[in-house]
Amino acid sequence: MSTKILTTQAELDAIFKRLERDYGALNKKQQAYAIREIGRVRGELADLLADFADSDGIIKRQRTARVLRELDEIEKSLRTHGTLALENIIEESSEWTTGKVSKALGISMTAANFDRINEHVVKYVIKRFGDDGLVLSDRIWGLSGEIRDELSTVIRSNIIKGEGINAMIPRIREVYDNETWKIRRLARTEGVTAHRAATSYNAQESDVVKWVQFHDGTCGHRNHKQHACYALAQADKYGQGAGVYKPTDTEIWCPHPNCTSYITYILDERWL
Q1: In a domain, 3, yes or no
Q2: What is the pLDDT of residue 7?
Q3: Range of 134's domain?
Q4: Rounded distance, CA 247 to CA 120, Å?
Q5: Residue 56: what pLDDT?
Q6: What is the pLDDT of residue 2?
Q7: CA–CA separation, 252 and 245 (whole Å)
Q8: I need a labelling partner for 7 at 20 to 30 A (CA). Which of 39, 105, 210, 250 fits?
Q9: What total of structural domains would you count in the chain?
């Protein structure tokens, strides 16, 4: 990367504030995308139920076990759609961030460097272990399993009651609607983690960035001061001031799920 810096620290701070606002807008779209992609299975499930129903739309009780076994395929489909959606969000977040950061610093980046940084970010986010001891695939499996369990309960109950699939579909839709907050949280957490990791990886590659600044988010949670991000933003780890870290400090990349904190750059004085 070039070491020519085309901005001042104050200008860079203002640019990063705009980038955080713009990334927030992008991530909202990503959340909607994840909800939509995972929701594809509603059509698959409707077709499955129709296959088991008689001409009057009723599924006989003796078919209950077979219908519920078929939910194994629905769960696999949930995992497939969820995995593709989340990996796309992670990749998009990394590439978006790398492009915006290099432009902010006035850096000319080769395609090879661009790809290498983003490969590192994607690999890190997908393979990282969270505080829950899980990696991304585990979280998606857990989410799909929870949705499947809720669907099983609704379908079993409706079949026993003798209700037709036309009455069943709205209740199935309610299951997805009730689970969207989990999808939204997962899309936000993984996307923002990729965004922060890409910000830090780019800082590591740059000669003009000496430190990074971790800024506390504004989630408005009543127990916000108990969150890890608040403690990280207040800490003076290196005697450089509150919230100042090395670009290699991974603890600031994902302090906790659904975190709204963000990272900016502190330029090396030599290039100011």
Answers
A1: no
A2: 67
A3: 9-271
A4: 14
A5: 92
A6: 43
A7: 8
A8: 250
A9: 1
State how far the Cα of 170 lies from the Cα of 174, in Å rounded to an integer: 6
Extract the residue ranges of the chain whose pLDDT is less than 70.
1-7, 218-224, 270-272
Determine the pLDDT at residue 1: 45
Name which of 251, 271, 249, 252 is nearest 262 in CA terms: 252
1 within a domain of the structure (yes/no): no
Instruction: Say which amino acid occupies 79.
Output: R
Question: What's the pLDDT at 3?
Answer: 46
Burial of 56 (0-12, 13-18, 19+ CB in 10 A): exposed
User: How buried is 232 (Cβ within 10 angstroms: 0-12 exposed, 13-18 middle, 19+ buried)?
Assistant: buried
Q: Is residue 4 part of a domain?
A: no
Query: What pLDDT is recorded for position 171?
Result: 92
Within a domain: 2: no
Count the helices and strands in the chain (H runs, E runs). 7, 3
Q: Which two tokens stand for residue 2?
A: 């070039």
